Amino acid sequence: EQMRSDGGRNAKKGQQQTIDLKEYPSKVLPLQNVDHNGNLTAYPDMVRLPYLHEAGILYNLKERHLSGKPYTRTGDIVIAVNPFQWFHDLYTEKKRVYYSNRLVWEAADQDPRDSMEPHVYEVSSLSYKGLAFEMMNQSILVSGESGAGKTETVKICMNHMASVQKGPIRPGMEESLDPVVQRVVESNPLLEAFGNAKTRRNDNSSRFGKYLQLQFDNSKMKESSLTSRSVSNCLLAGSKCDVYLLEKNRVCVHDDWERTYHIFYQLLAAPDDVKGKFWSKLKGTSNKSFKYVGETDTKKIEGQTDAEHFQHTINTLELIGISGDKLKTLSDGEHFANTVKTLDLINIRGDKLVAMMRAICAVLQLGNLGFNAKNGDADKSAVATIEELRDLAELMGVEEKDLTLAFTERTMKTKTEEYKVPLNAVAAKDACDALAKEIYGKLFLWLVSEINTATCAEDNYKNGSMSNFGIIGLLDIFGFESFVVNRFEQLCINYANEKLQQKFTEDIFRSVQTEYEAEGIELAEIWYDDNTDVLDLIEGRTGLLALLNEECVRPQGSDQAFVQKALQVNNASQCLIVNKMDRMSFGIHHYAGKVMYDADQFVSSNQDTLPTDLSDLCSMSTNFVIANEMAKVEAANMTRGTPRRQKSNLVAPTAWGKYKTQLLSLMTNLRKTESRYIRCIKPNMKKVPVLMEHIPTVEQLRCAGVVAAVTLSRSAFPNRL
């Protein structure tokens, strides 16, 4: 009870509590860990904790957090508590050199970490060492809930990797970067501009998942020994980035005190002479000019976002030779200037830049279109904002009348005929929003493709082309989500987290247990959650994924029919929750807790198809970015064909099906690597420094499997080499 109420913070030194343990006699344990002299101690490696329980772990993390030490080690796992402030002395050039030299370039008879403070730099250093000297591909999996600091942690690791690949260096040595490496480092802020947004829980929230594969030339390592450690033998050669599940709905809708994607605010805050180069009618506009952006005063939000990431920007720019004293807190307009410079770095300039920005303007303009009943007929619609439509037609380079028909009518096809069906005003506006989301989603994928073209080692490596490169993967994917209303996107996100939790379980628990059993070494039995039953419910042959896909290809498929089938077919599952008060909802007992889902629009979200009228029109646009990307959609629609039956389920290309394929590919690639884990913790919901709220923190520790991981690591510690 004391741990639940105050995390043991008011426990007096030496105070004890009787703990009732299941299936074991009661045992007296201290609420806080003390050393052999009875002094309260915060341990850098929680494997060393004398007494292992949630209160002790919470207290240990809290003491380090309040002391300005955000990192704590648990065996090979690093726990990163978001400090909500920047500790410059933790990320200096001297610190980067210290960790890379000690862990990579200096030979040691025993693990140097025993005498080193925990740091994410140790994870990046050991990953590089594993690739360079053990010839094994690596991955770093960063997990945590929204606002826990995942994206910043990945950036810190990547920046350090760019430094460590240059070999053993001394502080003060020049740290110039190869142009390709510079593009790799600077691609992150570019993706943030187009894929991150301010939410209630995080001022710079990644609204997409990302797996960045850093490519290294380690071909010469076979010729070198551990005694000839040279940077020239394992250079960073390039990178490739895969992205997952961009939150396209945010283009059209966001809650009060949240924002849509940063790039919209950056563009609208640019000087008029700059905006006029992209579209003359953009001059004189502001956030209030476009409904998708909204009228909320974002100055406070902008200040919060900039303040949180200012020092991260300094750290990145110092790495490429720009000192912090040349910088100041950046506004949205100044961020836009930096975004344009970075776009130029990856060869998006001139006509290509103009086409890209005009596509963004088209998305903004789509939000301003309005529709009403046509001549009083509620079953038909007409454009109510003619001037806005005319401006949109200009931006897209299509005929105004063709655009009108594409929004207000739908082409229907049968085997023998083709005919038009009028749309009402609501359906017309839905089509308008669907087009905005599709254009922005395709624009984002196009940007990722352009970044990969500019950074991939196959095309850009200075030492010649190679077919195979060593890989260190950095995974930054959405954290577990549970809101007041949870929809299709939340189920997809939580499904990904279940898959990653399964791998974490395999790596940290099952593999060690199997190893010890194979060696005949006794290992104390350790209880842990196995989420196989949850994954069976979601992705099994009769699971939610199969049933939703089947409903999507039925002519009269509906959200309610999907829920009824899901509950009926899976009624024996202990993970499925029935809501008897609402036939449109269901729940799942996820590894991280119970989540109730509202199935409204599950079927339409899973179908994820743009009406052919709109995709055909966009493929004829004079904006080559829009036209080329929409032509790909049209080609995909042509090859979709009719749904096919595979075993017992109807199968058709759906959003969830494509997403599942992506995840399976990701998990396959991750299993080919040696994975290292960073568990990010959000210490409070207020996003302020020097505060740890106990209940939310403990819940995150449970979700992350930290207690069981500490137990296993300590059990294994004396026997592992």
Automatic annotation (TrEMBL):
InterPro entries: Kinesin_motor_dom_sf, Myosin_head_motor_dom-like, P-loop_NTPase
GO biological process: actin filament organization
Binding site for ATP: 144-151
A GO term from the CC aspect: cytoplasm
Pfam families from the UniProt entry: Myosin_head
Positions of the Myosin motor domain: 41-721
Gene Ontology MF annotations: actin filament binding; ATP binding; microfilament motor activity
Region of interest (Actin-binding), residue spans: 663-685
SMART domains in UniProt: MYSc
Glycosyltransferase found in the keyword field: no
Keywords: Actin-binding, ATP-binding, Motor protein, Myosin, Nucleotide-binding
Recorded family membership: Belongs to the TRAFAC class myosin-kinesin ATPase superfamily. Myosin family.
Name of the protein in question: Myosin motor domain-containing protein
